[in-house]
Amino acid sequence: MLRSAPGALLVVLVACGSQVRSTATSPPPPDAPKLDLPESWIDPEDDLPHGITRTPADRRAALDNPAATPIVVRGATILTATGAKYAGGVIVLEGGHITYVGKGPVETPAGATVIDGQGKFVTPGIIDAHSHLGVYAAPGAGATSDGNEMVAPVTAQARAEYGYWPQDPQIPRAMAGGVTTALILPGSANLIGGRGFTVQMKPGVTSDDVAFPGAPPTIKMACGENPKRVYGAKGGPQTRMAEYAAFRAAFADAAAYDAKWRGYQRARTAWLAKRARAAELDAAAAAAGKPGRVKVEAAPEPPARDLGKDTLAAVLRGEVLVQIHCYRADELAKMVDIADEYGFQIRSFHHALEAYKVRERLIAHGIAINTWADWWGFKLEAFDGIPENAGLYTESGGRATIHSDSAIGIQRLNQEAAKALASARAAGLVITDDQALRWITANPAWVLGIDDVTGTLEVGKRADVVVWSGDPFSVYSKAEDVVVGGELLYQRGAGRPETDYELGNSAGDRGAEGK
Amino acid sequence: MRGAAPLGLVTVAVAATLAVAPRPARADTIAIVGATVYTRPDRKLDDATVVIVDGKITAVGAGVAVPAGATRIDGTGKIVTAGLIEADSSLGLVTVDAEPSANDGAPALDADKVHAAFRVVDAYDADALTIPVARAGGVTSAVAVPRGALVAGQSAWFTLADGVTADDAVAAPAAMHASLGNAASDASGGSRGRAIEMLRALLDDAATYARTRSAYDRNQSRELAADRLDLEALQPVLRGRLPLVVAAESEGDIRAALRLAKQRKLRLAISGGTEAWKVADELARAGVAVILDPTDNLPRRLEAPDVRDDNAAVLAAAGVPVAIATMGDPDAARTIRQLAGNAVADGMPWAQALAALTTVPAALYGVKDRGTVEKGQVADVVVWSGDPLELSSRAEVVIIGGVVQSLVTHQTELFDRYR
Q1: Closest approach of chain B CAs to the CA of A436, in angstroms?
Q2: B55 and B160, same structural domain?
Q3: CATH for B43
Q4: CA A371 to each of CA A333, A355, A393, A443, B209: distance values in angstroms, whole numbers, following the listed order
Q5: How many domains does chain B have?
Q6: With a CB-CB cutoff of 8 Å, which residues 371-390 of chain B face chain A?
Q7: Which residues does chain A have with pLDDT short of 50?
Q8: Cross-strand pairs, B49
Q9: ipTM of this complex > 0.90?
């Protein structure tokens, strides 16, 4: 993905000609036509313009980290989130990925940081499939409120990445809670709020520093109370009736836009062939010493570029992981119907407090849910939330995650999973510890489309690892060591990384972390 | 049925009785036998028996005899504590936060800044579906607190027992509630200093009013800072009988509240208090309690950026009475024990964390007969499957006023329907 150049800038560069083109990070190949557009017509700065095919390069980008020095944890209880569990196990991290996990014996690589894991637990880094860190940063103020573009119900052109403040003081706190990866989403004011941003949970100076390498694109949508509350008095949608109509209209428009561009591409391909043939004929004529030039009409005009529709067209082509905020069972089902009508797949529903009522149907569609352990009741569409939601979904064979949607909750997702586990078991559901761990590791990795590189502790997976002071499902346990992409970025007792905002803060100087 | 008290704990005959009693009002004789009992947060009895007669605890200890005819609850392997008390709640006031028609907790959204006369009891919905959910989580009492503006009004302490009505408050008023800081300065004209000035003027005028009531009634008084009912309502605060709970986050506002309380000899408590750790010694010397959420560690308020993870631990170590609460989240009342567990993880001694959910709120609001499992106390008692602050533990039996409570809720019935 070309993360540095906003669309408008790149268009200017391309329009200015070849001498500045070399400054763009992906220059066209030398034999590319010198005319108007690059061959890939869809949003050249798009994350994955050719669809969500995970390439070896994507994986290498996530798995290799030259800045990582070897780390070994010995003697800990290792919970891998694959079903395997090693008591007194060893895990070796080198070059940004896991090179050994098991019971040992295994040699300590030269220069490794060795962590004594006696009495401790090791898990994959926690992944939060729903966060607004960085786009709703602390301190909470209008100045840091960048998560909801509340000017129109469809703002597919917006991107959480553009609003993400990588110095948000909430970030090191989430990291200290064992979170290594999160999906940063636009808020739920809009039906289609924009693209999400998959991040490594660590402070950075620019969003490039923290982007999860090679993560597929995502988009945030929302149905129900929030959009109608925001737009009811601002031209609508005022009702759910109009919300679903607006979704369908947006996808119908995107389909038409897609068709228009496909038509243009066909016309342009034909025109290029015609021009090439004309050139051949001209050359042949010239070789024969004949005058004359074959006339070729002007190149077809490209349709106007619309960044929002680019994204929605990409959704229709299955190139974007669709993430939908939705609470009520009837609305979950309606969104499934709309996705079926327009031929796209929903990756996961977020919040989904009534998913348990329609779980068979959602599971049959291969849709994951991201939900809470015990949030409910704060609005009417949340009134039927039950603490067994994740348990029921899991027991029925579905993929569930426990997400935070909260800068407080993200600091203890292990506890939230523990509560959901306790609720499920108290209700008689059979959920294993490993399944509960997957709620906050492997399953959100799948929701984000990066489960091939993170979310479990396996050889060859990314070194996103947490060492806990005790059982991660205990309220008393703390993340002691947090490794993000092979780098030991947090050690309890040494203090959290301080963000720029907190420098000089007396709480920080006095060890705000608490000991 | 899942929501009811587990049959293994309560004898079958009694469980059957409970199932048919729609509104259990009669307090039976109950004996919890063989449990680990925390009579107070720092006092543990092993293999003890708790006897409850007519709603009161009549005996606690090892080897205490079970009265004839008592409902016997097997406490083997269980932990018994006093029922948890949420010291700063919106239960009964806010049922659906986003719906104005189900949200009566903030009376002060109008231009009027002082609502001392507002009484939570007049707005309390004892049938809110949020209440059984909290109760099933081992919360047996909650102080319903009004919010917003400079002075929001008078809270009320209710038990969460089935059958309670708005007429059954344990303490009403429980306290007067005011706020300083950004929220109050919005209501008072843009400066935090102005909010303190207005609060001082209000208390001055309330004192003036008390001295000059007859002149006031003859309309021979200067204009006072609030209406008659508000000035009347402030009298118990001025006399030091009713606690004044001031919502304040910043060190500066907490210090201002301390000055005001000292000057006026008020019974002060602080709620919120993200920077209270900076004033810990002064709070301890003044005997001022702090009601807080120990997980609130984000520098999200520009007025109070100095946040610590171990605010509760620092305060408790200095000798400040700390109560732990959701700070008004009616849906999350059952999570107060998790909040307390986190305070422990951040350095607060376990007994003080349990006290923050039991004895400290009781003392803060002057409710002397609840909050402990001691002889003579009202029997608000919970039998836990394990450590009450631990996430895997459940409230297995909840007794309020000596009555074993139903644990059926909106949520358990939904589960049963869609299982």
Answers
A1: 13
A2: no
A3: 2.30.40.10
A4: 17, 9, 10, 12, 54
A5: 2
A6: 389-390
A7: 1-50, 509-511, 514-515
A8: B61
A9: yes
